[in-house]
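User: Mind token order:
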Amino acid sequence: MLSVSSDKAFEAKQGGEDGTETPILEEIFKSGPTFGSYKMGDSTFYSLIENCCESGDFMSLEKVLNRMRRERRVFTEKIFITVFKACGKANLPEKAVDLFDRMVDEFKCRRTVRSFNSVLNVIIQAGLFHRALEFYSYAIVKKNLIPNVLTFNLIIKTMIKMGLIDKAIETFREMPMRKCNPDNFSYCTLMDGLCKDNRIEEAVSLLDEMQIEGCFPSSVTYNVLINGLCKNGDMARAAKLVDNMFLKGCVPTEVTYNSLIHGLCLKGKLDKAISLLNRMVSSKCMPNVVTYGTIINGLVKQGRATDGAHLLISMEERGRHANEYMYSSLISGLFREGKSEDAMKLWNKMLERGCKPNVVLYSAFIDGLCREGKPEDAEEVLYEMVDKGCLPNAFTYSSLLRGFFKTGNSPRAILIWNEMVNNDYCIHNEVCCSVLIHGLCENGKLREAMMVWKHMFCRGVNPDVVAYSSMIHGLCVSGFVEQGLNLFNEMLCKAQPDVTTYNILFNGLCKHGSLSRAIDLLNSMIDSGCDPDLITCNTFLKALREKLSPPQDGMEFLDELVIRLLKQQRVFGSCKILEIMMQKYLRPKASTWAKVIKELCKPKKIQAAIEKCWIGLFF
């Protein structure tokens, strides 16, 4: 027999607040025989059980069940299913298992797959997935229960939640052998699991299979696949599925539109996403806050915060209320685009509408004010934020530090840092330390930056790429290039340098006449998978003109760089260098052009172009 552990939650239900037992209404049983020939029927007990289940009074429920057993009343499976549901509601899965085990021997009630499914669902809803599989094996093997479609659906769902996708497929394939044909839910559950495991092809193949097997897809089925394809960026196939959906008589729902809009936003097709949003509204499908938020965030990323603000107004006119994250995205975007007045208006409008700013909103507003060169105003907002019980985070303080450094007020930035240290705010955060180091180095305060650097290590804070790059920059600018290189070598063991880090060293080495060492470092950068950018090219082109005799224009140097990147299948990087060459009127060799075009015209690249055309046709 399956072992059942004691349930603390159940024990807590056994008594009242003072620890005493909750008494059952014995009068109900005592008063019955006094009314002439009246005798309580089974229905009275059934009503008592339902009342106990509704109130969660499991102690009284146990007494009713025992009374029924003593009086040899008829127990139906329906009674136990009601009790199992109550166990689920009270989060008492072990109690449900216990009663399931006692059904036959103690209460003389026949068990079927219906009661088994009810208990299985209670266990799954409690998140006890391993226990659910254990209970399934126990009931099927030892109790000889025959599973039905619902049983398999529950088990497949459990296996997928546990990440056992292949095991779920095996169970799915086992269904026909058990004379259970998969239904729409079976297919949808497995498709969803496959999509989330990035096995899109297998999920899509199930759509054809289910139709061959006579199980017709619903809107939910299509939505699962469309959502999976959109998240994977495959908008062309998602568009085909929408077309197929109409042909099969399935009407797109809010979920369909939301998935497509999200996919278009991921691809940067914001205008088409807005067009689809309007089509969605005209089809009587109401977009939710997430849909609007996705488009607004996408518009902000494309530098179209004003369009995002207009969409916010349209959203509110349609009865949807913006949340703090929408406002923070828009306010941040408007400040970045230099539209500080619009950002201020939106902030005041938000406050008028009763939206209480959170740390994200306050931080976005403070960052925006600092970008506008108003760190003093930002500091006032910070104090207002703290007064209202909203604690600043690392981003809040790093924005304020950056703001004071930007206006040349490094003493005030240091005072802010000291305030953070005294109040124990974010002092262990590498972002704030990096901003402080960067600001000090930019202002020529290398000694102070070194003190903060040592402070980071003493506090157990690991420097990030920005901190390392800032310190290397400070050392190189002060003429300590060798020390900068030593710090770079130390960095390689702890953090991955980016192109900015390399460019700092290229500039330092080239200025000190070490062009050959700079080229060696460039080779190391390419081998590490980091592509050169415009600053890299400009640094070397300047060095080739000024440090060599006779001077070189750099055409051959960049051409060789393109070839080297192509050999490593880094087409994007090589095309970027070609673009820089064209901008500087440096003509690549004909053979270089041929190699780039050949790489771009490979089948996968052509297929990507075709899929792009599909997206254009459907959206």
In short: DSSP finds 35 helices and no strands in the chain. Confidence is low (pLDDT under 50) at residues 1-24, 32-39. The CA atoms of residues 191 and 219 lie 13 Å apart.
